[in-house]
Amino acid sequence: MATGTIYNNVVVTDRINNALNTMLETRTLMTIDDSLQGSDGMTQKIKKYTYTGSAQEVAKGETANAGSVGYVDNDYTVKRVQAKFVYNDDDAMQDSKFVEAGIDGMPKSVVNYGNNKFFGELAKFGYGVDGSVFNYDLIVDAIASMDVEDENGLFILGGNDFKKAIRKDDDFKSANQGEILFTGQIGNVAGKPVIISKLVPAGVVYVFTKEATKMFLKKDTFVEQAHNVETKDNTIVADQYVIIALVDDTKARKVILGSAVASATAFNVVQNAELPTEVEVVLNDGSKVKVPAVYKAVYSTATLGVISSTKVTVGGKDIDVVITVIA
User: Fold this and answer.
1) How far is CA 89 from CA 8, 92, 106, 227, in A?
2) pTM across the whole model
3) Alpha carbons 175 and 223: distance in angstroms, whole number
4) What is the pLDDT of residues 197-212, one digit of tens each?
5) Chain-centre distance for alpha carbon 55
6) Is the dihedral of CA 175, 177, 181, 186 positive or negative?
7) Which residue from 266, 268, 267, 262 is spatially nearest to 317, judged by alpha carbons?
8) Angle, to 10 degrees, between the axis of helix 9-21 and the axis of helix 98-122?
9) What is the pLDDT of residues 220-261, one digit of tens each?
10) Which of 135, 139, 157, 315 can bridge 130 by disulfide, Cβ–Cβ 3.0-4.6 Å?
């Protein structure tokens, strides 16, 4: 690359995009929505759909309580995301690879931003399946509990602890023989691709489709450059205008181990009523998820006030929970 030159933006953009495509780009795990392009405004009202309800045991002739789907409106503001590289003509003349290294480094910061935002939205998944250890059956249970007709679009995203555990699982080994299918993917569980990322918290696995989260693109990545004829400083800037948001909880599950649970959320119950069939737990990363309520003992709701020594069991771990009986 010659110094003192504004390089062709198409060439620089292609180089950045090519680098993006070689990384674990979370765009492939989201739905891309370009409906904001060409429209006025920088705020998008996004409906997040949520399913409420749980599976129940039923006797002959009986039926389970129907679940329901609700939604909440959230206003998201488009963010301008920028990666910038500044170099001097002297730098380029000193080392012919200097500029190329800078351009190749820019996509990493773009990917890191997108990954962090994406995983922040994954942490909001509101429904969970719990277990004491990661195994093949646990993933099957998570998929079975989801509102998904076509399972071909499902992904399983776990951390290094999940990779270690699942590779030792006999069902996984017999189905995959431990093969590496492509970069970032270690095989399949229940026929669904398994992807590993260090950004997934320990004790957690995400099972979801691309419809669970969306990337709203107001303007996709574009490059601009400037050259200062006096100082010989050059600036390359890559920008995109984007929103990354969780939009559909019904297309996602968070599989958790007891080790990932920090506490259970306190709740009230009406006098003489049945205890809830679901409880909300807080994970070590601060996120919350609802799981089936497995109570440590039989607790009475006959007396008003706090029920003493109440516990729920989540993934083999006993968690204290404050239950208050109200009139």
Assistant:
1) 17, 5, 19, 10
2) 0.72
3) 45
4) 888 999 999 999 988 9
5) 24
6) positive
7) 262
8) 50
9) 778 888 889 999 998 888 888 888 888 888 889 999 999 999
10) 315
